[in-house]
Amino acid sequence: MALDFLAGCAGGVAGVLVGHPFDTVKVRLQVQSMDKPQYRGTLHCFQSIIKQESVLGLYKGLGSPLMGLTFINALVFGVQGNTLRALGHDSPLNQFLAGAAAGAIQCVICCPMELAKTRLQLQDAGPARAYRGSLDCLVQTYQREGLRGVNRGMVATLLRETPSFGVYFLAYDVLTRSLGCEPGDRLLVPKLLLAGGTAGIASWLSTYPVDVVKSRLQADGLRGAPCYRGIVDCMRQSYQAEGWRVFTRGLASTLLRAFPVNAATFATVTVVLTYARGEEARPEGEAMPATAAAPSGPTLAQPSSL
Which of 88, 131, 193, 271 could disulfide-link to 263, CB 3.0 to 4.6 Å? Predict the structure, then answer.
């Protein structure tokens, strides 16, 4: 159990460092006004941020996900692993259920963390900035809006995370089985990277429109009076103003981010589990393949044991 949490923690750090610039672009594209759009697309957004704010502008709000996602990934992999063991049988359905349970539980941390991240990513640079950091943002939000303000977008986050994490672990399980990921395979790590990255893309595609709504709810009122009364009202107003394409805004940068982030996360988790568990990483009773009879180092854990 402790190793599940430790591996998830390391995977979270790796994923955040790889993917945060893409997330900054995604959020800015999602919440910009169509009446006066600031960016023409993903590449233009990247270029504008670097030109106006330097490369560090891409890492605005890094503190919140670095602290939050590190713990969230530890929680997700820990809960998923323990739920799967509690269900007693490693099947595709149980992988989905275990992933969905992990996704639902981590919303308690994920929602306030993403609120702070979104507001930091959208604030102006220089003396005009409203928040000094993630904690300051949450403190100011709590002072102005109370606990409800800190947890703004919680229902949307729950609707996004529960099914998407189920798809995440289900896709990873199906892909690792299909690719024949076995200990001793020379291509095991590339296969795990491919499976992890593809699972991340599948996860985002499954619930992306909900993520757009969540971002808009959490950014609402940041630059003027609040516009939305809730999830349904946000969807209705967004659709009426901008059509169905509004629910795919920022998708390109999200998918560009999803593959390397999730590949890095799963690869890091696998490596940590491999060197921490060694021989114990294989499911109990599983025979070692002949090709791995005399490994030069610790045998990589079976993906299903994650």
Answer: 193
Residue type, 45: C
Q: What is Dmax (Cα atoms) for the chain?
A: 67
Torsion of CA 43, 45, 46, 50, to 10 degrees: 140
**What separation in angstroms does the CA of 277 have from each of 12, 235, 271?**
19, 47, 10
Task: Write the burial class of residue 88 (CB in 10 Å: 0-12 exposed, 13-18 middle, 19+ buried).
Answer: exposed
The stretch 197-208 carries a mean pLDDT of 93
pLDDT score recorded for residue 127: 65
Alpha-carbon gap, residue 84 to 44, rounded angstroms: 43
Output the pTM of the full model. 0.73
Total residues found in the chain within this entry: 306
Q: Whole-angstrom distance between the N-terminal and C-terminal Cα of the chain?
A: 10
Q: Tell me which amino acid residue 134 is.
A: S
Q: What does pLDDT average to over the chain?
A: 81
What 35-41 contacts at long range (C-beta under 8 Å, 24+ apart), as own/partner pairs, is: 41/252
Residue 258 tokens, joined = 């999803």
Q: Write down the pLDDT at residue 279.
A: 47
